[in-house]
Design a protein that fits this description.
Distance between the termini: 55 Å
Strand order of the largest sheet: 1-2
Structural class: mainly alpha
Number of strands: 4
Strand content: under 5%
Radius of gyration: 22 Å
Number of domains: 1
Length: 386
């Protein structure tokens, strides 16, 4: 029988197809070619990474309190903030059950790893795994940094508009993370944001509260031991703990914001337009950090690969992300981190037009091209013009 050209159409290379389906096909092709061992958590590797992160956290916590020199306090304080991040990423993987192979061990290690970040484990699992991954970049479901439409913004009272304007500034994204995500989803979730595991959720909050109390006591004792008197001992210890956490929370907000907010990423409010593979590839960014920063934070910014397949352990993400960009480079949003690019993103991405798929400023003026849900990468000229 004669074979018509139409019958051969499905074998067409995804790169040749200009429709949004191309991104879906490219993402599925990448996932199909992932080596099975890249999805296999290792008890040994996971425990080593957890142990190194925990040791770094405890050591820097002690040293930032007892260092005899002020410079040492600052240096070890900065390293303590980084170690909070490393512990948190280990907990993040445990929440996905990919830190180690053993399920119950993931639950134990995850709870411990998230204590320095003051994040209740059960609340995080629901907000992150169920909502953030299950409804990435979907308005009303995605729990952090969901942009308002112009109509939503105009309907707010004046004081709340001022808050939104602040949230979308380089400084405000940290406050937005703490208030809108950490506060409303992890500490005091309402009935629509609460985990179905209510008892475990409450126990985890008590665990975090107990850890904070332990930190304050240990901090006071260490400051007393050091003999330094820059501040009263009752104030110096808790101040060091709170400042380290607050700085970490700001950088956590900055990372979360950049992972799904960029002039080239789209958001959705219509499930008919939303497709898992397309959104995880086209609305998740790979913010390319210096290699040593990536390693210290356990590769958390290799984000599209993680979103397309959360079963990949953090220690396999660099290879997985590299393979993804080889298979779907024309769709991947790769953003080399610079302060200029970060500031441009905060300037361009204020409100969002969910019908035309473009970013707006607070006056409703477009700041990006329309049709972001299906556009190829922005030309260099258009990118630098924004």
């Amino acid at each position: 029988m004669h074979t018509t050209p139409v019958a051969q159409a499905p074998s067409k290379s995804p790169v040749e197809n200009p429709q949004p389906q191309t991104a879906i096909a490219a993402a599925k092709a990448w996932k199909a070619q992932l080596p099975r061992e890249w999805r296999a958590p290792s008890n040994v590797r996971g425990l080593v990474l957890f142990g190194v992160s925990l040791t770094a956290y405890v050591a820097t916590f002690v040293l930032m309190h007892i260092s005899p020199k002020v410079l040492g306090v600052y240096v070890f304080g900065a390293l303590n903030i980084i170690s909070i991040g490393a512990m948190f990423v280990a907990g993040h993987d445990a929440a996905h059950r990919t830190l180690v192979r053993t399920g119950w061990l993931n639950r134990i290690l995850g709870r411990i790893a998230m204590l320095p970040a003051w994040h209740p484990f059960t609340s995080w699992v629901h907000a992150h795994n169920t909502l953030h991954h299950g409804f990435t970049s979907f308005k009303g479901k995605h729990p952090d940094f969901c942009p308002l439409s112009k109509q939503d913004f105009d309907a707010l009272p004046r004081w709340r508009q001022s808050v939104e304007r602040f949230y979308r500034t380089p400084l405000g994204i940290g406050v937005c993370y703490v208030v809108e995500f950490y506060g409303k989803y992890l500490l005091w979730p309402n009935s629509t944001r609460r985990s179905p595991w209510v008892f475990a959720e409450r126990c985890d909050r008590l665990l975090v509260l107990g850890f904070i109390a332990f930190q304050f006591v240990a901090s006071y004792w260490l400051v007393t031991l050091s003999g330094r008197h820059l501040l009263p001992h009752w104030l110096a210890g808790p101040a060091a703990v709170v400042i380290a956490w607050a700085v970490w929370a700001y950088f956590m907000g900055m990372a979360s914001y950049q992972q799904h907010t960029h002039p080239r990423t789209a958001w959705y409010d219509n499930l008919d337009e939303w497709n898992f593979y397309h959104v995880q590839l086209r609305s998740s960014t790979h913010v390319a950090m210096p290699a040593f920063v990536d390693r210290m934070l356990h590769n958390i910014m290799d984000h599209p690969a993680h979103h397309l397949d959360p079963t990949i352990p953090m220690y396999q993400l660099p290879e997985s992300q590299k393979l993804l960009e080889q298979h779907a480079g024309e769709h991947a949003v790769v953003v080399p981190w610079t302060m200029k690019e970060f500031l441009r993103t905060t300037r361009v991405c204020k409100l969002y037009d969910y019908q035309e798929h473009r970013w707006l400023d607070f006056d409703g003026r477009p700041t990006s091209p329309s049709g972001l849900s299906g556009l190829p990468p922005m030309p260099q000229a258009a990118s630098t013009a924004l």
